[in-house]
Amino acid sequence: MPLIRAFTGLRPAPGRADDVAAPPYDVMNEAEAREMVEGRPWSFLHISRPEVDLPEGVDPYAPEVYDKAAENLQKMVQEGVLVRDTKPCYYVYRLTMGEHRQTGLVAAASVEAYDNDRIKKHEFTRPAKEDDRVRQIDALNAQTGPVFLVYPSAPQVDSVLAETAQTEADVDVTAADAVRHEIWVVDNEATVAQLTQDFDAMPALYVADGHHRSAAGSRVGAARKEANSQHTGDEPYNYFLSVIFPHNQMQILDYNRVIKDLNGLDKPDFLSRVGERFSVETSEQPVKPAGPAEFGMYLDRQWYRLRLDRARIPQDDPVARLDVSLLADNLIEPILGISDPRRDARIDFVGGIRGLAGLEKRVDSGEMAVAFSLFATGMEDLMAVADAGEVMPPKSTWFEPKLADGLVSHVLD
């Protein structure tokens, strides 16, 4: 079974991509989703967030929500808003956000490779979120939310993608957040075969974002295999929808922390304890760390630059040497008393897309007592953790830009 393969994508009809394209289902709440679909009857949010077409307050995991998603998808196909390609294709997908640009490949990725850890993970999943994605896939008989994968940059693949992207795009959409989404259909059989072969030569792919979607794809595949007495391994359910980018084009932003209180310490005692492990310097400007083991701290309307004692940085543990781990192990847990950031209500996380002003706002309002800015996790760090079979701490990476939903879907028949 190949690592990836081409597939007959379900896509917006010519001229309809602007009507269909939507942000990922999990980057907004229900109220925001309802506002986004106003005046947009063909937005893919009617499929990815179908509760927008049901009374407010409906349980988003209720059966009627998944039924509405299936109904909306069928309607979009019947009305010709979405059409399916007639032959297996790959799709080159380019994201442009400001000066940043990354070019990847939309493909069906092997469930078997995922199960055998050739598609490597770095996060735990939550059963309730997995169950939601399984029910969504089963109701639609399609995978509509792509898994964000990464491949170790390979010159031959990179050049095919770059050359394809020099031609006129089949889809060119600029979303409300000013991110440009371009797609090129790759239906030349020789090119398709070469890309399949080139990816199959790679030792591994890595899940960057979409652990629940990939886990759900695996579960759906296993259930359908069990139910199919004529199973051959060639069925679409043996693969899941993915977009795969080269590792050296990825943009990971910082994922910062805010804490509600100082764990019973007054300001002088807190700063004294921090100074036992870090050098502490005041700063007249907001502190955006310039490298690993450096942190910004905002407390009582004052920024500080923290640098961890190098002797405290473990070199042989890919998880413990991450900046998110260094801050947790040397300050957040021993000084602020937060040992389980997944469940402790005293800590919250702020994506770097909101900037350092987003941290100041949370502290100046009195909602939080202290904020920390971090140096962004590197893609090589993520890959090292996955290669070691380890798991990243929660909220370690914030990928930007995000993929759009609705531009290519993978039907399971």
Structure overview:
The chain has 413 residues and is an alpha+beta fold. It has 2 domains: 4-251, no CATH class; 255-375, Conserved hypothetical protein from pyrococcus furiosus pfu- 392566-001, domain 2 (2-Layer Sandwich). 31% of the residues lie in helices and 24% in strands. The protein is built from 13 helices and 21 strands. The protein has helices at residues 17-20, 30-36, 45-48, 63-78, 111-115, 127-140, 155-164, 189-200, 211-227, 267-275, 323-332, 355-364, 379-387, and strands at residues 4-5, 10-12, 82-84, 90-97, 100-110, 119-120, 142-143, 147-151, 171-174, 180-186, 205-209, 239-246, 252-253, 255-259, 278-283, 294-299, 302-308, 347-351, 370-373, 398-399, 410-411. Strands 1, 4, 5, 6, 8, 9, 10, 11 and 12 form a 9-stranded mixed β-sheet that branches. A 6-stranded antiparallel β-sheet has the order 15-17-16-19-14-18, sandwiched between helices. Strand 4 (90-97) and strand 5 (100-110) form a beta hairpin. The two termini are 18 Å apart. The model has no long low-confidence stretch (mean pLDDT 96).
The average pLDDT score comes to 96
First-residue to last-residue Cα separation: 18 Å
Shape: globular
Instruction: Label the structural class.
Output: alpha+beta
According to DSSP, the number of beta strands is 21
Number of helices: 13
Domains (count): 2
Q: In what range is the share of β-strand residues?
A: 15-25%
Largest beta-sheet characterization: 9 strands, mixed
What Rg is obtained from the alpha carbons, in whole angstroms? Answer: 23 Å
| Residues in helix, % | 25-40%
- Unreliable spans are none
